[in-house]
Amino acid sequence: MRSHYCGALGTNNIDETVTLCGWVDRRRDHGGVIFLDLRDRDGIVQVVFDPDTEEHFQRADRVRPEYVLKVTGRVRARSEATVNSAMATGEIEVLGKELEILNSAATPPFQLDAHTTVGEDVRLKYRYMDLRRPEMQNRLILRAQITSAIRSFLDGAGFLDIETPILTRATPEGARDYLVPSRTHPGSFFALPQSPQLFKQLLMVSGFDRYYQVAKCFRDEDLRADRQPEFTQIDIETAFLDEDEIMSITERMIRELFQSVLSVELGDFPRMSYAEAMERYGSDKPDLRIPLELVSVDDLMQQVDFKVFRGPADDPDGRVAALKVPGGAKISRKEIDDYTKYVSIYGARGLAWIKVNDLAAGVEGLQSPILKFMPEAVVIEMMTRLQAQDGDIIFFGADKSAVVNESLGALRLKVAESMGLVAEGWAPLWVVDFPMFEDDGSGGWTPLHHPFTAPACSPEELQANPGTALSRAYDMVLNGTELGGGSVRIHQHEMQETVFRILGISDEEAQEKFGFLLDALQYGAPPHGGLAFGLDRLVMLMTGSQSIRDVIAFPKTQSAACVMTDAPGEVSAQQLRELNIRLRQAKQEAAAAAQDE
Amino acid sequence: MRSHYCGALGTNNIDETVTLCGWVDRRRDHGGVIFLDLRDRDGIVQVVFDPDTEEHFQRADRVRPEYVLKVTGRVRARSEATVNSAMATGEIEVLGKELEILNSAATPPFQLDAHTTVGEDVRLKYRYMDLRRPEMQNRLILRAQITSAIRSFLDGAGFLDIETPILTRATPEGARDYLVPSRTHPGSFFALPQSPQLFKQLLMVSGFDRYYQVAKCFRDEDLRADRQPEFTQIDIETAFLDEDEIMSITERMIRELFQSVLSVELGDFPRMSYAEAMERYGSDKPDLRIPLELVSVDDLMQQVDFKVFRGPADDPDGRVAALKVPGGAKISRKEIDDYTKYVSIYGARGLAWIKVNDLAAGVEGLQSPILKFMPEAVVIEMMTRLQAQDGDIIFFGADKSAVVNESLGALRLKVAESMGLVAEGWAPLWVVDFPMFEDDGSGGWTPLHHPFTAPACSPEELQANPGTALSRAYDMVLNGTELGGGSVRIHQHEMQETVFRILGISDEEAQEKFGFLLDALQYGAPPHGGLAFGLDRLVMLMTGSQSIRDVIAFPKTQSAACVMTDAPGEVSAQQLRELNIRLRQAKQEAAAAAQDE
């Protein structure tokens, strides 16, 4: 129907007759002339109808916002006075000759350019309207470009796009599964996959060598701001490649993606061990755009009597760390109180601080409630170690290492953001050398990744030192977000059994849960490994979106509902009967009970 | 780890030192030398170890089928006597220098080259082994190529890949939904989508203009041989294009797909009306490779007294049709009985036939139990109309038109196949001009497609003549298989209401089921339409596979189970409690009850 997209018109089209299709974004009358801003997915252009074209002018006079039009007219330059430099097509306009109203529109539930005046619930209910906003169009267009660029790269690198089942059985990620009652096997249930992990490993056992999939995954968890019950994963697995090769290919993929879609050069990604990331940033996904670091001062604090510091400093599982914030001396008492509350979310029982007002004056030039507990020499040595300068504030964490890392790591981000210390640009890195296991708090071990992750040592060494063994896992981190993670997998049966033994998973349990994978490892499994990227998060980063809901066409709310389609909904007694299930409590009772909890 | 894929080696690699990784396909000892056939996804190559390389020879001596090896060696030409022309790499072999056993393998549950000796259940249980077979590898590799080629085409044509939800609400296709109990909304259920139909229409209302998705769809139906509970659809929707433009783009897509993947030229697709397809082939998806046609003889049969023919000939809803099969006079009585049984599946109460033995002898030269019921002149005129020749058999159907079309349409395929009358090659076509509605058998109307299909007339005309109104739907048919179907959709509220009224769907029911779509049509819906291709069937056709299970990596059985992972499986009482459901009958009871039915 159309000859051009609205947004594609420019001065090189002047004097051409064009046909456009789109929506009325705005309509104005001015000096007996009607101005229509016509919008399509490519952009907006101004169309002018003057009374000469009587029939069409009259029609133009009837149109209202969001009417769907087909317009034919001639492109002409705007006069210098009317050029609109804020508009991509602002140097031209279309002098309308013919106008066909393809569809009318009721008054929209909200004005697109005033979407912030209504709540997100209204925008989600009328999602098809909200998606008309150019920002939303651009986000989903960029998402399609990103997916396409990734696919091209992987297709070109010999990866095969292979689909794995959605109706499957519980996978080992450990989050809560969505379940689907089976009609043909009454009393049994499918689970929706939390990831294609087991299937992709089986594909390697099958010899497909290089696999990828843009895979839907599902987790029935209580949702945080950046989570959705269904999310999309760029899922990759390879055989006969080691971790360096896998990291090299996928790093190249992300680098070329940023080049082609954003024209951004990411350069080579540095690698950092998990231990170093925790030590310096209190996080296994450090945001390297922030020039703040945690510095350990345990050795100094072993010299003080102050119990709050001395205890953790002497504790092998404890840590005392300092976070120096340049220019932070101006932070108010009120703000410090807020930060103290903030770190308490992460288990910190307080937030000690020292303001550096005048270093030349020695301890006299410092300001802090804790100075009185520390010998002057220790304080001075600490200032030297931290390379403190006038105007700094130094925060302290002293507790179990995990608490210190988590709370100071979070504080680092928070302070950097509110003080504008986050540099522009992109800071990617690999985090490597993760521990295989972590203490489960009751004398046992849980896997830091999943139980199929290969260790960087022999079964015997692993059995001997599970607490210090490192895995062959790797995470790709960008601007403080984990873009993707993966590992070389265990491909030998003996090693898999060792890991299960350390995790306290009995042979029966292992066989019951992953029997088919264990079987497969016996029939000639190749060395293999892979990685999965969270597509939604990648698109969020690349589009600068604050909410995951902004990069998904039809997202769920935080209570895992779709307010547009009213899903989930009621089903008939007949449907439940066919599935051999009944409700435990009627819907309203159950809802009331859930609210009471 | 490798320098080459096994199957990529040829005479141009002679004297190169290569490193290969793969599986031992076969192992032979001959004259003190060990021959290993090494297999990867690209093919198979012969590797020779002689006793010179002692350590590696000893290792080679230990390997068994399906061991995983890394081999380094020199490519050399085979002697003329040992060239194996049945093997793609049969002109060369690799003289092994080094061998590393990457993994051992237990004795496989079945030998790959003897997979037909075990049942499909065994192959499905050890799917990861069955997928190692070169035929299976090639099918899934071709599937990936097909998907990739389609995506490239659509990306290049400005289509945006947009994901729609899997956790959603019941869609209007009318098959049984898979349900997912909601934990956060106890008593409510998500449905898995039978197609993204409503979402893709909403994306058009949102202005995305051209959308596609390789979409997982779900139907909880009792499975036929070519169905799976989850299947994949190439889902396409466009705005501002009419049916000719949509058909033209998608036809080009399929044509380019066949060119690029199979090097096949399909040419321009003919178009045929639904009425003509039913008249000539008794099917809305005629296989044009078969040179047999149905010919109506109602007018002739109105001249006979034979009730079986005369009744349907006089009935406006009836039909008497003939199917002439050249060379069919040699079909035995036993075979005719089998065909009679076959057409009874489709409701035919018998299968009349005439064998043409000697046309020159007039009626005397014909052989049939029904000749005695028909005047000679009618028989002769019929022979002329059918252009009968000696050696033909003519089958007859006489009943309601629907029964005649279905039974003779099916017989046409059956006879053609068993007599080898199906031509080689590809016969695509479009079927168009479908009726909007069909009689629901109780005085009402049901949609031939879905209730969002636009009619080719005004709301007033549609209301006046629902039985004869045509729709703007179109199906793409290839070799008797419906590859895809679609339509221009209703984009105006008034038309949608008219259709619902004719279908007897009340305003409340419409609002309850599709309220969000009806709302959307009021806020400026553009003219739009689309089409969906069944990817699994397309891949079946393009790979020449007989079973849909051969083109899906991890398919379900006919009872909708996965024998490899044992899905569906049992879940815990705790999980059910969280979802506010309980089993109606315990699993074993329910299974017993289901078996009794």
UniProtKB/TrEMBL annotation, chains A, B:
It comes from the Bacteria. Residues 197-200 are annotated as: Aspartate. It is found in: Cytoplasm. It catalyses: tRNA(Asx) + L-aspartate + ATP = L-aspartyl-tRNA(Asx) + AMP + diphosphate. Signal peptide: none annotated. The record marks H30 as: Important for tRNA non-discrimination. GO terms for biological process: aspartyl-tRNA aminoacylation. Residues 142-555 form the Aminoacyl-transfer RNA synthetases class-II family profile domain. GO terms for molecular function: aspartate-tRNA ligase activity; aspartate-tRNA(Asn) ligase activity; ATP binding; nucleic acid binding. Belongs to the class-II aminoacyl-tRNA synthetase family. Type 1 subfamily. Homodimer. Aspartyl-tRNA synthetase with relaxed tRNA specificity since it is able to aspartylate not only its cognate tRNA(Asp) but also tRNA(Asn). Reaction proceeds in two steps: L-aspartate is first activated by ATP to form Asp-AMP and then transferred to the acceptor end of tRNA(Asp/Asn). This is Aspartate--tRNA(Asp/Asn) ligase. It comes from Sediminihaliea albiluteola. The gene is aspS.
